Amino acid sequence: MKYSHPPEVRPYLISKTLVPENQETPIHFYNGDIVTEKLFYRRNHFSYPHFASSFYLLPIEGLVHTPKVFSLQEIYSLPSKTMKVVLECSGDKRKLFKPKVFGEQWGKGALSQGIWKGVTLSTLLQYTGLLDSAKEIVFEGYDNGIRPDSNQLFNFSRSLPIEKAIDPETIIAYEYNNHPIPFKHGFPLRLIVPGWYAMASVKWIKKIIVIDKEFKGPFQAVDYVYYPNKENDSGKFPVTTINVNSTIQYPLNMQLLHTGVYEINGIAWSGNGKIANVEISIDGGKSWDTCHLTTSSEKHSWVRWNYKWEALKEGEYTILSKAKDSNGNIQPSEPTWNRKGYGYNAIDRIKVKVE
Fold it and tell me: Where residue 222 sits, what CATH number does that domain have?
């Protein structure tokens, strides 16, 4: 009698909604630094756009000296920049907020990382110039639809202040992991804004417009704004830089373990410098030990960490992880609650039982 090998078991995206498609990465089961196309989380406000990529052109217009329309071939021929960048949805971990907030109930997997290649926006702007009155640069995507709070048709559009837009790390990307950007992640051109939450990294760029005032589009002035008060808009401020954060990948929350020696592992990241260290607590925060960083700490990418745990005593354990970045930012014990549930970065917490 012949026995066949069991098929290889692979993780799949975790579906949140299908129209528009919103799916998160099974981050607990991912062991590499580079997330493949199939496991890259998907965040959309609308259905996927329709356009003819073979006739794709990128105009830069508005408050420039010389408006210009770039072909893809022109963009490909310009000096390129390649970076490993973590992209995190600003709603990552939203389901952990207490009290609960409305919105896509993301767990811990609205987060992915890979190698992006493209041309810096500042390189393109050398061909157009900027007028002295320029204040912000608007990036309009091809994706559009009717917002629930209005009967109007909107394209997904976001702006960057001039200084962030011309930062040498802000790129118009055309490759992901040495291949053309997958269509579902912005092919043929996607803005990549390292260090900022991923709503800034506009997909399927349709056009770039330079303006002399604050952009008031709904995905800038209504959404992706921190509202610290439940009843009114006082104290609101924009969502920008990724907060320092960490996630325990193994063990899993509420997992049953036998007594023995385990390697607790996870990832940590920050949009504000590099990860300096990660600490772990096995006793619910009463005491802390330093974890071992198993990958080099780089700007704009996550670091992997682990900790050897001798789980020799039966019982229930609350395991916590806490990251600190090179600018002194530390994960807080409690998240900063806000009405739309952005920027969750409280100390990560799981429970396990040893028996």
Answer: 3.90.420.10
pLDDT at position 323 is 98
Q: Locate 328 and state its tokens.
A: 């002194």
Q: How confident is the model at residue 53 (pLDDT cuts 50, 70, 90)?
A: confident
Sorted by sequence, the CB contacts under 8 Å of residue 264 that are 6+ apart come out as 248, 250, 251, 280, 306, 307, 308, 309, 319
What is the CATH number for 279?
Answer: 2.60.40.650
List CB contacts of 173: < 8 A, sequence separation 6 or more.
116, 117, 118, 181, 186, 189, 190, 191, 192
Q: How many domains does the chain have?
A: 2
Same-domain status, 154 and 209: yes
- The tokens describing 278, both together, are 């990660």
Nearest to 335 by CA among 244, 214, 201: 244
Q: Are 46 and 20 in contact (CB under 8 A)?
A: yes
Task: Specify the pLDDT at position 89.
Answer: 98
Name the β-bridge partners of 246: 268
Residue 76, classed as helix, strand or coil, is: helix
Q: What is the 3-state secondary structure (H, E, C) of 261-287?
A: EEEEEEEEECCCCCEEEEEEECECCCC
Instruction: Please check the confidence at residue 1 and state whether its pLDDT lies above 90.
Output: no
pTM over 0.90: yes
**Residue recorded with tokens 């959404």:** 223
Whether residues 273 and 323 fall in one domain: yes
Judge if 279 and 192 occupy the same domain: no
Looking at the predicted structure, is the pLDDT value of residue 52 above 80? no
In a domain, 7, yes or no: no
Q: Is residue 4 part of a domain?
A: no
Whether 146 is covered by a domain: the verdict is yes
Task: Classify the phi-psi angles of 276: left when phi > 0, otherwise alpha if psi is within -120 to 50, otherwise beta.
Answer: alpha
User: What kind and span of H or E run contains 70?
Assistant: strand 68-71
Q: Give me the amino acid identity at 101.
A: V
Residue 89: give the domain boundaries: 14-238
Domain membership flag for residue 85? yes
Same domain? For 215 and 73 the reply is: yes
Task: Count CB neighbours of 73 within 10 A.
Answer: 7
* CB half-sphere exposure, 199, CA atoms < 13 A: 23
